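Recall from the previous lesson that a structure prediction takes nothing but the amino acid sequence as input. Here we apply that procedure to TetR/AcrR family transcriptional regulator from Corynebacterium suedekumii. The sequence below is the only information supplied.
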Amino acid sequence: MAGHVGRPRKKSPKRRGSTAREEILDASAELFTTKGFATTSTHQIADAVGIRQASLYYHFPSKTEIFLTLLNSTIEPSTTLAAALGESDASPTLRLWSLVAAESRLLLSTRWNVGRLYQLPVAASEEFAEYHSQRAELRDIFRSLAADIVGTDDPRIDLPFHIALSAIEMRPNNGESPAPLSEEELPEVSVMLADAALDILHAELPDDRVARTLELIRLAGETED
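The prediction returns the following tokens.
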């Protein structure tokens, strides 16, 4: 009898995702955010997906690479939007409002609370220098936009970035997205946090801020494509 072709599953799929790679990321996100990085093994990840451990390495060379992929998923869309905003003629207040809303929107859109991954001790490792660089770049954009509003010497310029990240503490980690991505509306929490970021700078809220932000997000997506 002919043997199996390719890399067969041990059992039928039990993860969300259109590909084995997406299923591996889903399982890893759950395990890393609930059990931690150090105590999660590739064997546990493979078992959670329903594939052989050897098959996992076909998609990712290491557990570290999986972790980096998840980390980058929390930062890359925001840096793309930030670059698009930099080329727009929007005011500093709208740009900052949009960044806070977009970053918190992303953090609220995932099944698992992947924003918590940067809080794990392993995230400080030099192995994740690529992520550290992108995160620093995004933080600096937040600071620069806030400085355009209140000045570079104002200590409040560090706050909008942290306000956006507070979405991590305001959502569950139960495998259900509290606010799936939508092209028609922003999550109430994202609007609240973006408003708070400008309020703490004593800046006026931009007119039609939600609709204009959704348009900026759309244009950023087209630029990425």
